[in-house]
Design goal:
The protein contains three helices and seven strands, in the order αααβββββββ. It has a seven-stranded antiparallel sheet with strand order 1-2-3-4-5-6-7, covered by helices on one side. Helix 1 packs antiparallel against helix 2 and helix 2 packs antiparallel against helix 3. The longest helix has 17 residues.
Length: about 200
């Protein structure tokens, strides 16, 4: 859905930023390379905006002392919860229109969480005002790697007000990573707009 949103609205930096964050959050080398490429494109397209989204790779740990673990009798301990990373982002956008049209405004709050194995769950709340029509929307989605070169994205969203936004939307995307940073995607978008 993020690739489709970027294609339909290439002038919205928030769409670029969310796609870069989702790719970087996977932890996969191919997705990281794609996120870095998009980050460079966004920096060239949206001058003056901060585009250092993809964190640098951590250097490998250096150890000169070989540690031998002590031999202890086995103990029963409670299982530890799975570690996960979380990212929260808030933002706003403003478009100044001409010919007597009212300006467009948007605000959003998004969160993403990454689990071991590269799975990512994300969600966003959004409010937009376009042509004096105020809409609220919610989006939930997930990214799941399907092996070394395949991945799946499933996303759904809706707007209870749906004056200018779709009442509901669904997206399914399968992606195959190819050599040289290229990929092939199959996307199935669906939405319902009330006129």
């Amino acid at each position: 859905m993020l690739a489709r949103a970027k294609k339909q609205a290439p002038r919205y930096p928030a769409v670029w930023r969310l796609q870069i964050q989702a790719l970087a959050a996977t932890g996969e080398p191919a997705a990281r390379q794609r996120a870095l490429r998009l980050q460079r494109q966004a920096a060239a397209r949206f001058l003056g905006a901060r585009w250092k989204i993809v964190p640098p790779l951590a250097p490998p740990p250096v150890s000169t002392v070989k540690r031998v673990p002590p031999v202890l009798p086995p103990q029963r301990t409670a299982p530890r919860p799975l570690p996960h990373n979380a990212a929260i982002e808030a933002g706003a956008g403003y478009k100044n229109l001409n010919n007597g049209y009212e300006d467009w405004r948007s605000t959003y709050l998004s969160e993403s969480r990454k689990w071991p194995g590269g799975r990512v769950l994300y969600g966003a709340l959004r409010e937009t005002v376009r042509f004096s029509l105020k809409d609220n929307a919610v989006t939930l989605g997930g990214y799941h790697p399907l092996g070394k070169n395949w991945s799946l994205v499933v996303e759904g969203g809706g707007s209870p007000t749906h004056r200018g936004l779709a009442q509901w939307s669904l997206l399914g995307q399968v992606q195959r990573n190819l050599a040289g940073g290229w990929d092939v995607q199959g996307v199935w978008p669906a939405s319902h707009v009330i006129q």
